[in-house]
Amino acid sequence: MLKRKRSGPMDGGRLNLMFMNTVVLVGVLVSAIPFIYMITASFRHQGELYSLPVTIMPREWTGHNYEKLFGDTNFVIWYGNTIFTAGIRTALGVYFAALAGAAFAKYDFRFKRLCFFIVLATLTLPFHVILIPLFLLMRDFGWVDSYLAVIIPGIVGAFNVFLMRQYIEAVPDELMDAARIDGASEISIFHRIIVPLVRPALGVVAILTFVNTWNDFLWPLVVLHDDTKYLLSIGIATMDGPYDVEIGAIMAASFLSTLPILIVFVLMQRQIIAGLTQGAIRG
């Protein structure tokens, strides 16, 4: 009678799994160390930031950096400005990207392929190429030093339109035809049928748009001149002066500026994972 050979306590599969888990854990720790140091540095005294040897945890905890941040800068105003612009641009960007994606996926019109090709071709243009013409356009509109210049240009990215088109193509045409028979308008079909079926894609587009807007630096720096209208990316950069550099306050501002990104990822992680996995399956 043949007996099944027992595997050893540590066969090859388990060793490979342990090795991969170890590599991932080390990678996570290495990636997290700068972030952890940023947090702890915001609670250090200024002199300790320049002392050696460097330690992860501060020798003496202090809230002086946060007092200086909120007392000597317009950090709260910058924070509100960034939340406002990122929120508005994300909401409008997701909506119009979905509209454009539905148009390219479900409707036939003249020069449809050419228009879609032009949209995708914009991905090959570096932003620095259109920076000066775009600024001149904003000047002619009278939008310089206003949030319209930050929100409106690039509100719908070509990649977002492409992503929404790919998802909306999978929506069954029979559902849309049935809604038309029942007398639903095209805009009603979009809101009641298409949007609920592509929520994972909407989540991916929302997080990409929000993160890009939150971290945007060059364009707001060009069009915003009033320091009370600065976004966080510009405001934190202005804290690094030529004579007085408060590293602790900058670390505190950097830590607080990352919190909304972390919150968005935590709240929308299911949508993001669903959107990415479904996109991979379609691919």
Describe this structure in words.
This protein has 283 residues and is an all-alpha fold. The protein folds into 2 domains: 50 residues, no CATH class; 214 residues, MetI-like fold, CATH 1.10.3720.10. Helix 3 crosses helix 7. The protein is globular. The C terminus is likely disordered.
Condensed summary:
By secondary structure, this protein is mainly alpha-helical. It has 14 helices and no strands.
Features:
0% strand, 283 residues, mainly alpha, 2 domains, MetI-like fold
The CATH architecture of the largest domain comes to Orthogonal Bundle
**Which structural category do the helix and sheet elements fall into?**
mainly alpha
**What fold name stands as the CATH topology of the largest domain?**
MetI-like fold
Q: Compute the number of structural domains.
A: 2
Overall 3D geometry?
A: globular
User: Strand percentage, roughly?
Assistant: under 5%
Order of helices and strands: HHHHHHHHHHHHHH
Give a count of the beta strands, DSSP E runs of length 2 or more: 0
Number of helices: 14
Radius of gyration: 25 Å
C-alpha termini separation: 49 Å
Mean pLDDT: 85
- Portion of residues within helices: 55-70%
> What is the CATH top level name of the largest domain?
Mainly Alpha
CATH homologous superfamily of the largest domain, by name? MetI-like
Please give the largest β-sheet. none
The poorly predicted ranges are: 279-283
